Amino acid sequence: MQSQHVAPRPTPSATDVDIEQAEAALVEHYPRLVRLAYLVLPPALGRGRRVLTAHALTQRALPKKRASAPAIPAQSTGRDGDPGYAFVRLQIVRTALEAGLPLRRRAWPKLSQLPPLLPQVWGLRLFPRSGGADELALDQQLSALSGPARAAYVLRGLEKLPDGDVREVLSAADVADPEAALREADAAPAQYALLDSPEFDPCSLQARPTDLRRRRQRSRAALAAAAALAVCGALVALPGDGWGPDGAAAPAYAQNPAAEAALNPGKLLRVAPLAWQSSARTDFSVWPARGGLTRDTALLRRALAVWARPGRTVHVSATPGTPSGGPAGPPQLLYAGSVDSARVVILYDGLRIARYAEPKAGTRGVALDFARVDGATAADASALVLDRADGNVRYLTAPWVKQASERDLMKPGAGAMPLDVTGGITAPLASPVTQTGLCTSWNVLQLTDGSGKHVLTDLGELVPARLTEGRPTKPHEVSGAKALRTWAPFACSLSDARTQGVRSVNAWKYAEQQLPDANGTGTWVCTRAETWRGGGPRVLAQFNTPGGAYGAAVAKAENVSACGARDPQVLAGVLWKSEAGTWYLLAAAGWGTESISTTGGVRATSQSRMLAVPAKKGAQADLEGTLDDGTKITGLR
C-alpha cells in the first residue's frame, strides 16, 4: 500500500474526555486495544513479555483526571467519533513506541521501558496461539520495521485509518517524522486481514512453564534457611525408622532414573520393521524408526533436551488438551531425517506425538509440536504430518499402508491421483489449510491398507483428521461414490475444525426436503468433529440447495451430544428464499422425529420430520421436535 499525499486538512479541535468515558471505551474494546499494543511493541521483547507488556500498557492508558483527546476519528463499527476510544488508543500507541526506545545511561527509564510489575504470572510463560506460515512471515516483516513504521502499518490495517489520520495519531504520539514512518510501512505487504489472526491475539493465550531449572536454583537459595529449620525440626520429631534418607521419601532433589533415561538417545525405544504384523495392537506403538538420521546421536540428544526443557526461542505448540511437559521415560523413535530445509525428529510416548524440527542451516527457528493420540486405531494411526513447506504437506505413513493417493474432496467424480511413497514418506501435496480467499478445492489424502481405504485431511496439526460418512451410530469410510458426493458441497466447512485437536469428522445426510414452489430438493447434512481429548466436539447443521456448489452452515454448537453416536438426533432450520421471491422457514430432523413446531416470529406445526412455511425476511423462530417415544428435542443453534 503506497502513501497517499493529500492537501493538509484543518486541525480538528480537541474533545474533553473524563475517566468514566475512557474506561467505558477501554472495557468495550479491550481485546482490540491489547492487540494494537502487542503489534506495535518491538518483537525483540519476546512473545511472553510482549503479552504482559501489552496488557499493562492498555490498563495504564486511562487518564488520571479529565483530559483532552484529539478529535482523530476512530474506525467505524461502533467507535466512530468516540473521544474516549481515540484518547486511549493514542496513549497505547505512545507508550508502546516508548517501550521500544533504547535505555540511556544518564536518564531515568520511562515506565513503559521496564518489565511490567502487573499483570504478573508466576511460573508460566504466556504467548498467543501459533498461526500459519503467512502470519509468521508477516511477523518477521513487521519486526524489520521501525517502531513508528510498525505503528503506521497497524493503524492502517487494524484500525482502518486513512493515511491522514495515521499522520495525526503519530504526531500526537510524539513521532518526529510521521511521513517517513508511512513511507517505511509501505515496504511491508498490505496483508491487513492477517492482523486479526490468533497469532497476534494476546487475549487468547497458551501457557508453558518457565525455565524450571533456573527457577529451582533461585528458589533453593531463597529458601535455604527455612528448609534447614524444617529439616532440623523433622529430625527431632521423627522416630529412628521414619522418613529419613533411607526411608520411603527420597532426599530432596534426588536424581530420577526414568527422567535421566528419557534424555538419553541411547535409551530410545526402537521397534522392529515387521513388528506390526504380529502385534495385537495396530497403532503408533508398532511404527518402526525410519529416516536417514536415526543414528545421529547429537540430533536425537538435542530433540530430547528441547522436549524436556524448551528454551525461550523455541516455537512450541500443542493441540487442545495435550500436555507439553517432558516424557516420563524413554520415548519411542518414529522418524529422524532431513525433509526439505529442516531436520525432523518424531517421537511417541504412548500418549503424545512430539515433532522436533530444526533448520539445516543455523539454530534459529526450532519448533516443537505436540498432538494427543491415545486410543488410536489402525485408521487413526495411518499417517502423521512430517513437514509443511510452500503450501504443501508431506506425510509419514504407517508401515501397513499399501498405497497413497490425493483427491479433491469437492470433485467426487475426478478420481484419485496416486502419490509416490518413498521410505514411508509421501510426495508433497497441496494442503487445504494454507489456501486463502475463496475455497475452490479441498485436497485430502487417501490411504489403502488391508482393511480398505481411509480418507484423511490436514487441519493444521500433526495428526490428520479421519473423514467418515453415514449415520452417527455406524459411520463408514469415505470410499464409495455416495460418500464422496455427500461430502463434496461441505468440504470447505472443515476449516471450522482447524487446530482444535480433531480426531475425526463425520458427515450425515439426515434429510432430503422437497422445496416449495417446485424449486427441487434440498439436502440437510450435519457434520460432527470429534476430538482426541473427548470434549469439545463441534457440530454443524448445513443445508444445500439443488445444484449449489457449497453448503450453508445454518446452525453450530459445541459440547453437545446431537448428531453423535450417543444421540443420533438433530433438528435445524433456515430462512430460505425461493426463485419466485417468497421467503420460507425450512426445518428438518432425523428419522424418528414425529413432529416439528416453531414459535416466536413464525408459528407453525408439521406432523412430520420436515417443515416448510411462509415467513418474513429476518424472522426469528425457535424450533422444537417430538420423537416417536415422546422425547422433546430443540433446534440446533
Principal-axis shape:
globular
What percent strand? 25-35%
Radius of gyration: 29 Å
Assign the structural class, choosing from mainly alpha, mainly beta, alpha/beta, alpha+beta, or little secondary structure.
alpha+beta
Q: Count the helices. How many?
A: 14
State the major sheet.
10 strands, mixed
Distance between the termini: 40 Å
Structure notes:
The protein is an alpha+beta fold. The chain is built from 14 helices and 31 strands. Strands 12, 13, 17, 18, 19, 20, 21, 22, 23 and 24 form a 10-stranded mixed β-sheet that branches. Strands 5-9-8-7-6 form a 5-stranded mixed β-sheet, covered by helices on one side. A hairpin with a 2-residue loop joins strand 14 and strand 15.
Give a brief rundown of this model.
With 637 residues, the chain is an alpha+beta fold. Helix content is 23%, strand content 27%.
